[in-house]
Design goal:
With 308 residues, the chain is an alpha+beta fold. It folds into three domains: 158 residues, no CATH class; 99 residues, no CATH class; 25 residues, no CATH class. It is built from ten helices and twelve strands. The strands form two sheets. Strands 1, 8, 9, 10, 11 and 12 form a six-stranded antiparallel beta sheet that branches. Strands 2-6-7-5-4-3 form a six-stranded mixed beta sheet. A hairpin with a 3-residue loop joins β4 and β5. The longest helix has 20 residues. It is elongated, with a radius of gyration of 25 Å.
């Protein structure tokens, strides 16, 4: 295939390579421990000492979980410009002793060959309820291999390239984009009845980014959290190199409702990738001004304003 292709744009990985990465991360995990929080201590460096396990630095996600459990607005109350580490340590110990709760702590050792944190044996991944049992990524990959059998070699994996550095996720959720073999819908129609479409074809051809064939890549996107952020979700998608409105309905014989729902899932997955799964608030005034000329501009209160 000449011109643009998904293989040419993205680095696609084989199932075995990704499975090996998942297994490597799994091997670094310590066994989950259920401890009384009154026995947990915080070091002067604000790391967590877990009985019979060691000292662990805290991720942003585990810090957020701990703050929710203890009723603390962590970043606001523990601003280093306002309070000292000793004051933070004292307040956390007071709340640990007062709660008397038991919590399941998930920890992991540092990746060999990569910098860790001084005086720490690893990092705290999550603070969970004692009865909470998350599904690990390794278990999901085991099921994928059993489900697809020999066909698993046809699956290609793509990292989340929306991050500055392509990765499988963040400290609270992992995202796996799985792409199947491309499906050709035939040659690109250079005599398309829509003049605007023909113009875009000409631009793409001059840039060397117009494929000879109209190609669709089927696939699905898995989202899973091993630390209590969300349950596993799977969204199906079809990635098309050349986009013409209505083709999935006219040629793919998909009901319009299903095509609309598929678009909803696709853009929802895009939003998850862009935001890292976190809600976006306090949009700048420049964003509101950028949509002020649309048919339904967004009001300053964040609601749709249908008045013209």
């Amino acid at each position: 295939m000449h011109g643009i292709s998904l293989e040419g744009m993205k680095h696609l990985l084989k199932f075995d390579d990704v499975r090996q990465e998942v297994a490597g991360r799994h091997d670094l995990k310590n066994h989950d421990v259920v401890v009384e929080m009154s026995k947990v201590r915080i070091t002067p460096e604000l790391h967590m000492e877990i009985p019979q396990l060691g000292t662990f630095s805290m991720t942003d996600w585990s810090t957020k979980q701990l703050g929710t459990i203890l009723g603390i607005q962590w970043k606001k109350w523990f601003n280093p410009e306002l309070v000292t580490a000793d004051q933070v340590q004292e307040e956390l110990h007071r709340r640990f002793d007062k709660t008397g709760d038991q919590r399941k702590l998930r920890t992991s050792r540092f990746m060999p060959g990569k910098p860790g944190v001084d005086k720490c044996d690893g990092f705290l991944r999550a603070v969970l309820s004692p009865t909470y049992h998350p599904i690990d990524d390794e278990r999901i990959f085991d099921r994928l291999e059993k489900k697809f059998g020999g066909r698993v070699e046809n699956l290609k994996f793509m990292k989340n390239s929306l991050n500055p550095k392509p990765s499988w996720g963040n400290d609270h959720c992992n995202y796996y984009t799985i792409v199947g073999d491309p499906i050709s819908l035939g040659a690109v129609d250079r005599k398309h009845p829509n003049e605007d479409v023909r113009k875009w074809y000409d631009v793409a051809e001059r840039e060397g980014r117009l494929p000879e064939e109209d190609t669709i890549y089927p696939g699905f996107r898995m989202r899973n959290s091993e630390v209590g952020f969300t349950a596993i979700t799977i969204d199906e998608f079809s990635f098309r190199l050349v986009c013409l409105n209505g083709l999935m309905i006219t040629k793919g014989r998909l009901p319009p409702f299903i095509a609309t729902l598929g678009s909803l899932l696709m853009f929802r997955g895009l939003c998850y990738g862009l935001t890292g799964g976190w809600p976006v608030r306090d949009l700048p005034q420049s964003f509101q001004e950028s949509v002020s000329n649309h048919e339904h501009p967004i009001s300053t209160k964040g609601r749709l304003n249908t008045k013209k």
